[in-house]
Amino acid sequence: MRVTWWGHATSTIEADGTRLLTDPVLTSRIAHLRRRRGPAPRPEAGDCDAVLVSHLHADHLHLSSLPFISPEAALVVPRGAAKLIHADSGSQYSDRCIEVAPGNQLRIGSLDITVVTAHHDGRRLPWSAYEGPAVGYRVDGAPSVWFAGDTDLYDGLAAEAGAVDLALVPVGGWGPSLGPGHLDPVRAAEAVRRVGASTAVPVHFGTFWPIGCDWLKPELFLPPGDRFRTAMAEVDPAVKVELLTPGESIEVAA
């Protein structure tokens, strides 16, 4: 399996001839946020068999990135997202949607996908009434992967998502504070322990930041990756932490 991190929560998971793209943000701006580290993903980032969207927030379901995605790709989205996509972008995208909720299973190419719970606000707020469940995804190939989306810890995490070989786990955010429903580096390490991953890639940090606010709490921009690595070593030193830069890839064996 080859995994490429494009920044924030956007990653390509490629295994057995199938390519999945998580929460694609393929531009340099999200409203008031700008990409502060690394260029926008290369055009190849949009080449996929399916997109996995974790929830309706604009930094995860980024409607402006849809035109950069393969026109044949399925859009796997939380239940309720297709109406939002249709209203904004039309039937050419909403007709490709597969709406899901926790517990659903589907197969994309050679990979089996299980939708798992995420403890996070799934509403599109603040500018929209659209809502749906926030989810994560377990991808079963060789190896297996847990893509968390945005979530906090919850009691059933190990039962729903684990045991997996690789965790794509959020460790930070895009601004000077983390609200409820997010993992900080310490809680992210505990999440990885619960799902039993032997390799972890920290995501959702060190990419976007509010325009004109580079000076504001810089310790919350790039340092969460190193803090996660330190916390993981304390929780389970056997876990290999791959601290990637945007556009970098790793090969993961089962």
From TrEMBL:
Tree of life domain: Bacteria
InterPro entries attached to this UniProt entry: Metallo-B-lactamas, RibonucZ/Hydroxyglut_hydro, UPF0173_UPF0282_UlaG_hydrolase
Pfam families: Lactamase_B_2
Domain Metallo-beta-lactamase intervals: 18-205
Name this protein carries in UniProt: MBL fold metallo-hydrolase
